[in-house]
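We treat protein structure as text, and this decision shapes the records that our systems exchange. Such a record has a labelled line for the sequence and another for the backbone structure tokens. The record that follows is passed on verbatim for readers who wish to inspect the format:
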Amino acid sequence: GGPRRLLLVSNSTLHGGGYLGHCQQHIKNFLGEQVKRVLFVPYALHDRDAYARTAREKFESLGYGLDSIHESCDPVEAVRKSEAIFIGGGNTFRLLKALYDNSLIQEIRKRVLEDGIPYMGSSAGTNVATISINTTNDMPIVYPPSLQALGLVPFNINPHYLDPDVKSTHMGETREERIRQYHEEPNTPPVLGLREGAMLLVEGDKATLQGVTGARLFLRGKKPTEHEPGTDFSFLLIDSNLQNL
């Protein structure tokens, strides 16, 4: 066993760079030398073979072997034997439905929270690491049995968080307005808006904002607050009603 270890990345590709290029050093620091092989979960995209090839190429270049769960005849057993899990981005609804369909929610929770294996997510893979996918940006193209997700942390994340463009004439809701609407519902947890280029490192009961961009934190009934890389977000890991902060 060991404490939970999570690397929750906002996006897999940053403008001007290749797949996971902006966070590859973070990945190496996170997985270290103990991990030899990573179990990849490509369920968020339709073409799982192509997705696995992209991920395999990247991880092999960093010195890690990669097995894709969709190539396993027994996904549950693959999770049970895994040294580390990486869930990639795509459509969050499609991803969560596949996790339920393959009976992987409890298995992944156990491996990460009880056995202490490293979990990395990017985009949709970060969404499903949280309490629920209520704050995803994706369209509900399929219908998972629940919006409840892996619950590896007791709050929600909004990856690819976008600030309003002051020059835009677009009159639709901003990301901030949508998160505020979520918080109009009772008993809704905090939402951490991770901008592209940002990631959250969780080690046991410590959570730290990393990367090159900041994050915006939304607490129900409070004004959102702005945070720079290096911010200690450990208080978000206290599994209690944070609305009273």
